[in-house]
Amino acid sequence: MAARRSDNEDNTTGAPLGLSRTPSDALKELMRHHPLQRLSSPSRELSLAVHALGLSSFAYSFWYLTAHPNHINRAYGWHFQYLTIIGLLLATLTFSFGVFADVTLSRRLFQAKNLLSMTSAPMSVLISLLYWGLRAIDPELVVPKELELPLPPDLSFHLAPAAFLVVDLLLFSPPWTITVGPAFGLSAVIAFGYWFWIEHCFRQNGFYPYPIFELVGTAGRVGLFGGSAALMAVNTSALSWVYRMVNRAGEERVGELKKQQ
């Protein structure tokens, strides 16, 4: 029969309370979540609050599409003709797994959230960069005048997903393990898969979701989607670099603990 643990012992190491833990004990505890992960997640505290707030923002965006219908609501492909809405759906799935992981403290759901994040975060950053960049040149490249959005929903669609996903990555996630080659391959599959999808929708609807697709022609679309794939891969590498810069203290702490063993 196992000995009963004393109430005066530490619940993790069995050491008497009030005594400092050894570097080995501290290292084991730190490695329960990745040493570079800044804040605790899954967690029913701050992590859950951030994921729930993000989901609320994404739900508002989907509500807006149904509460303010236009001809896209009746078109083939609905609003999923837009890369923005596909990205919004991926962000919603990512944060849904995050919320369920926080509530249940499930490591498997947490891992699923992190796996989805490797696609949803670079895509959402790509969408924000393309949308606001093209809009700065000419708003009608991305939004016809009749579909112009008020500022609050515009930010909800084209800025909030990227912001929430980047915060989740930097503060509540372990570092990504994807390298440049696979990142570009994944980005290319997404970019040209989307091209195939919008061409299919065009054959049904007779129009493209973004005016720029009509303006640049077929050769221009090849360049646009190829460039977008490259930019999304760059986003993946850039986000990984920012992650290391923001969370380098965790790596230094592990190094110090290993030296003390």
Q: Could you please describe the fold and organization of this structure?
A:
This protein has 261 residues and is mainly α. It has one domain. The chain is built from 10 helices and no strands. It has helices spanning 23-30, 46-67, 71-74, 83-104, 107-137, 151-158, 160-172, 180-205, 211-246, 248-260. Helix 1 (23-30) runs antiparallel to helix 10 and helix 2 packs antiparallel against helix 4 (83-104). The relative contact order is 0.14. InterPro entries: ADTRP_AIG1. One of its GO terms (cellular component) is endomembrane system. Residues 1-22 are annotated as: Disordered. This is FAR-17a/AIG1-like protein. Keywords: Membrane, Transmembrane, Transmembrane helix.
Relevant terms:
261 residues, 10 helices
Fraction in beta strands: under 5%
Query: Based on helices, strands and strand pairing, what is the structural class?
Result: mainly alpha
Q: What's the pLDDT, averaged over the residues?
A: 87
Please, how many domains? Answer: 1
**End-to-end distance, in Å?**
32 Å
- Helix % is over 70%
How many individual helices?
Answer: 10
Radius of gyration: 23 Å
What general form does the structure show?
Answer: globular
**Poorly predicted ranges:** 1-20, 26-31
Largest β sheet strand count, sense and barrel closure: none
The H/E string reads HHHHHHHHHH
Transmembrane segments: 46-65, 80-103, 115-135, 179-198
Main location: membrane
Membrane topology: Multi-pass membrane protein
Pfam families: Far-17a_AIG1
